Structure to design on (304 residues):
């Protein structure tokens, strides 16, 4: 019998997270596993419970919700041998989409978990670690760190109660474009430095964020690389035209957009433009620049 930690976001999927969490617990228990509820009153509270559960010797951690719950799971299990299971019932579910896991199908998701637990089978995937330069502590993320207009849109979308999925990001985009001016950046990647006014700077471990915005469509979660997307100083009209192209990923064909592969990235603000917005990763607020991001190959064991 395995001892499994369970963390549920009850507000995921317009409140369907609670029902999904109860069903997940019911089925795991019926299969003979011991389930420990590690959900908390807040994200930080739940993250503390999950980390402590991993330290105390869980056999697996299962998160129920959207990409925010995946973010929590990565921060609990990264660089440990405890595998992570995902029941994706959020509005975006970009990481589940990238890994081929079921979305909005609770029983199918639990079937995957039970099969993986029974066979002791997992997929080792990369995790990205972000911290303030000179500080040892930091955060892990699974998908994409954004530090440009996309981050400002993400932050605004998080504060909107409707509509769902990508439509929420389109609404937030319209709101942010009204006062948009390019930001100032210095991005250091190994031997290359990009210093410019810019519209987008994203550091991607996975291909998408925001419910299907394919910011780095060629990014793979187990290649030991980060895809750094750099977009130059678009005008407001130019930004309005380029951002919708993030959904199919065709923005990469624009001459002012570049992608650089790296294992370590330093993103700093400069006076070449406005101060960049607070960086976001997996839809969660990380903090202001400067930030250092480093990929850790196969740092998370994912139940598949």
């Amino acid at each position: 019998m395995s001892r499994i930690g369970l963390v549920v976001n009850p507000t995921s999927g317009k409140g369907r997270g609670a029902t999904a969490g109860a069903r997940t617990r019911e089925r795991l228990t019926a299969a003979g596993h011991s389930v420990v509820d590690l959900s908390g009153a807040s994200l930080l509270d739940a993250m503390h419970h999950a980390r402590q559960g991993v330290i105390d010797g869980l056999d697996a951690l299962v998160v129920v919700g959207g990409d925010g719950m995946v973010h929590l799971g990565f921060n609990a299990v990264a660089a440990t041998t405890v595998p992570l299971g995902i029941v994706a019932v959020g509005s975006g579910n970009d990481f589940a989409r990238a890994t081929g896991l079921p979305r909005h199908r609770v029983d199918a998701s639990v079937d995957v978990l039970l099969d993986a637990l029974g066979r002791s089978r997992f997929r080792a995937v990369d995790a990205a670690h972000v911290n303030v330069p000179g500080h040892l502590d930091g955060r892990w993320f699974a998908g994409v760190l954004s530090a440009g207009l996309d981050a400002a849109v993400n932050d605004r979308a998080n504060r909107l109660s409707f509509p769902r999925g990508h439509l929420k990001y389109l609404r937030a985009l319209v709101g942010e474009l009204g006062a948009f001016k390019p930001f100032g950046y210095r991005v250091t990647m190994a031997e290359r430095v990009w210093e410019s006014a810019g519209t987008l700077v994203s550091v991607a471990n996975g291909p998408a964020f925001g419910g299907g915005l394919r910011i780095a469509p060629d990014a793979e979660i187990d290649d030991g690389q980060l895809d750094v997307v750099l977009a130059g100083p678009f005008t407001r009209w130019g930004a309005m035209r380029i951002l919708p192209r993030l959904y199919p990923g065709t923005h990469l064909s624009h001459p002012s957009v570049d992608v650089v592969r790296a294992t370590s990235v330093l993103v700093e603000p400069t006076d070449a433009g406005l101060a960049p917005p607070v960086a976001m990763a997996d839809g969660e607020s990380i903090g202001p620049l400067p930030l250092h991001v480093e990929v850790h190959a196969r740092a998370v064991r994912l139940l598949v």
